[in-house]
Design goal:
It is a single chain. The protein has 538 residues and is mainly beta. The protein contains seven helices and 32 strands. The strands form seven sheets. Strands 1, 2, 3, 4, 5, 6, 14, 15, 29, 30, 31 and 32 form a twelve-stranded mixed beta sheet that branches. Strands 17, 18, 19, 21, 22, 25 and 27 form a seven-stranded mixed beta sheet that branches. Strand 4 and strand 5 form a beta hairpin. Helix 2 runs antiparallel to helix 3. The longest helix has 16 residues. The two termini are 47 Å apart.
Amino acid sequence: MTIASYVVECAWDGSTVYTGTGSTLSSRVLSMEWDRGRDKGSQYIGRSIAGSLTLRLDNRSGDYNSFNSASPLYGNILPGRKVRVRATAVGAEVVNYTLWTGFLERITPSIEVGGWQEVTLEAIGPLGRISGHEIATALAEVVLSGAALSSALNEAGWSTTELFRDLGLSTLQYWYANNDDALEAIRQIEETELGFIGEGKNGFITFEARNHRSLDGSGTSTDHLTSQATFGDSATALLRYTNLTQSDPWADIANVVRLKVLALSTGLTDITLFNKDRARSFNPLIEAGTTFSITAVYPNPSSTAGAIGVGNWITLATSLTEQSSGGDYAAHLVSYDAAALNAAGTNDTMTAALTVTLTKKVGYMDIALANGSAQDVYLTTLRCRGTPLNEVDIPSYFREDTVSQGIYGKHSWPGGKQWLAVDSVSPANIYSTRYAQFILGVFSKPIPVITMSISANTDSNHMTQAFTRDISDFITINANTVRTQLGFTDEGCFIEREHHVVKNMTEHWVTWECSPRRFFNLEFIPGLSYYGQNTQLA
């Protein structure tokens, strides 16, 4: 029996180096389990979800009670702290494998009065960290899916230095976020690309373009054309599984595809979109040395039907006098009153005292006006201009497989709204048609999901596999002897989801959910693909 050594760490001090007080939890851990990957073992129906980690810790010291002022961690037991699990040895061999990285979500003490005390620490992966963050961007035009993803994550406060992504194959004709949940926004990009957004063991967010698994990494761990390991049911197999489950999820059959595509158009340029020009009800006072902030929102009650935002806000132009019709903003020493302004002429104009800062998004523009003078002024004019953005009502792209419907009944593709996109060989309408054809080619019949478990403690080979296998790895499964009789011979599969359980810091079990490769080849690969059924040109 091979035993591994684990290091479990939490950066209680808010850093990322795990060197502060109490950062090493290993000696306190009673059990741990973690998972990463899709919500089900399917390449395209399975959606990206946040990974999770659950730790049970010995808490007889009371160190992990957040209101215990005697704890050395008092004041630092807070959500968002970085958490990491590593393996440092396999038997006598020294190794350094990062197994999971994420963020503390909650910590729950459990106490038997006068007796045993433990605590449950729960952490979430990077996707859980950005979920719930509202993001808003300016309009991007003709942008690759990978670049759109980077923009969305940047708005969510996620550093692009912790992002490992492909460029993407789909060019989005338009893309934006308008106060959308960050996770849902990037899922929409993922669905348009038919790619995969996931989490790395190192805590990075990852993005795979739809051809990612057709790439040859020349025998390295990024090689998705060469099997990285072979697992069998024979007692003499080098790598053996203990349990194997095959499911044929009828619920995932799709023989009706209606693609809801978001198409946009821009209206005339230099249109007034927000207007408080010479309005008696709009005379905010900007005190000397202070900044007044306001948000111009579009669409608003005066907008035209079909308007969804602004393609390009025009930078505000100054108005040197209240009577100037060409300016977008003006300030005076007195509030709006026709008689007072006429009597004062232009001598009370204070527009030049204002410094304007703009933050432009599709649905709004934030305007900050700083009064740099020693006098209080009134903002008497504010007008915002730009190019309106309208949603185009286009028919949904529709395809169906009547043969499949006759066998399994009608089942609709569960995909949501997508961005209008093109690729290297297809304009928008053909791209959407091929997208629908691909879905039918793959999902109009049941696709097996293979769930395989191994005991990592079997020997060092199995332990190494437990530590090194990753989401999207290409492996081989054999289940063709009298011990299993499932009929899989050299079945090439991709790992879609992983689940680890470690008991008493010694007993380690791993379960992988896998999708057979032969059902999912999006690009034509000689010897592997079925052209015209489950393939299309990249």
